[in-house]
Specification:
The chain is mainly alpha-helical. Helices cover 57% and strands 6% of the residues. It has a single domain (22-177), classed as Up-down Bundle (Hypothetical Protein Ta1238, Chain: A).
Length: 188
């Protein structure tokens, strides 16, 4: 099988249900999700399997679900097939967020990306996830989308933040606080 097809040489690409320009907002949305998936892989490569088996399993599930997000975003018309991303996936992210948040010290100030290398890359995942979410919001204003993808990405960025803090905590490395911040957070 050849990797190249030459079908995109004129600046268009195939999506589920047709062809669009490569700079179409739909392609920008699922392309940013694909970029995020690459950074998740990088974060996983930095995590020790003995210390982080649960997080590695969760991140692998996230990678598969990001492919589901991309697949739903590449769908021109829902009637072509059912959506893959569901509210159950969002609910599960919330469970993971609560679990990893329970491992971290109370947060009092804004947190800067840093600490361990893996934590820093998880913060990159968080920011790329936010950009993907913005691209999906733009797409959703112009065309129908699976609203669960937007919800999933919104929750996923919170997961990356919490996971980054948990990695630092398990590694006995403190989070890097924004020193110019007053104490703005209080756990209830």
């Amino acid at each position: 099988m050849r990797i190249y097809t030459r079908t995109g040489d004129a600046g268009q690409t195939g999506v589920i249900g047709g062809r669009v320009d490569k700079d179409d907002v739909r392609v920008e949305a699922y392309g940013t999700v694909d970029e995020l998936n690459c950074f998740v892989g990088q974060a996983m490569a930095l995590l020790d399997g003995e210390r982080f088996p649960d997080l590695l399993a969760d991140l692998l599930e996230v990678q598969n679900e990001l492919f589901d997000c991309g697949s739903d975003l590449a769908l021109l018309k829902q009637e072509l097939r059912p959506y893959k991303v569901t509210s159950d996936m969002v609910d599960r992210l919330e469970t993971w967020i609560d679990k990893y948040d329970g491992e971290t010290p109370d947060i009092k100030r804004f947190i800067l990306p840093g600490g361990t290398h893996a934590s820093s890359v998880l913060h990159v995942c968080r920011t790329v996830c936010r950009r993907a979410e913005r691209r999906v919001v733009t797409l959703g204003r112009e065309q129908p989308i699976n609203e669960q993808v937007r919800r999933y990405l919104n929750r996923l960025s919170d997961f990356f933040f919490t996971a980054a803090r948990a990695v630092n905590s398990r590694s006995s490395v403190p989070d890097v606080e924004y020193v110019r911040s007053a104490e703005v957070f209080r756990r209830k």
